[in-house]
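Question: Now follow the chain.
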Amino acid sequence: MEIAPNLHRIEGLTGSNVVLLTGEQMAVIDTGMPGNGELIVDYIKSIGRSPSELRWIVLTHHHLDHSGSATELHGMTGARIAAHADEALDSGSGELQLRKGTEGQHIPFWYRWIVGASRRPASQRPDFPETPIHHALNDGDALPDLPDVEVLHTPGHTPGSICLLVRGPNVLFLGDSAINNRDRISRPLMWNRQHRRDLDASLRRLRDLEAEIASFGHGPHLEGEVMERLRSLTDRPYDLPTWRIVLKNWRTLRRFHASTRRTGHFEGGRPGGP
């Protein structure tokens, strides 16, 4: 689905939203869960392009539901993988590797029980692929070969989370720094108070940008009043106790977690997120 000129959201994948930039130099933003590589390649072919034209695989952060197919897609296309330097670890051989992990780690059992994650059998628990980072990004960088794509370091959700601003169509890619619940934009559920404060500071940095379309790691893209809604979000400090957020939004949270394990995308929930 084309969300703006030369920007396509690829449907039918598992995990996060995946967006393809189809200008002269092609790039994909995030890859979703493991196993999406062939579907991404098929989509590239369906719009009359060659998979070998894909130059970059850009990861907004290291979580598996965003990075899971990066290594697979690299092997199929030769595209280089880029992520922020704070998402990288030295492999010991001088090469950079993406951190491993998922939002489902180090959270209370009661939360797992509420959202249905505690009953997942061991056979369904994820394996984390080894993901090389060929190019480490920093705040203010432009992607090589893609000068209209600006990297914005937005720590909070993870240390090296990034947003991307594509100038021209003025599209802001928010990764998991914000989620579109349709009724309003919300922040991801987070357990660490300092990380919450870091995320709030990062989102405030975005207030003065000019964007006409917002694309999210989860939830549909947004057109119209993009910055007004983002500013409204940053006017509300992220200070509610986590248990209150969970109890108020447990149905939406359960749908969200279920959506990351099946084909298709989270398309928003009811209002009331953090």
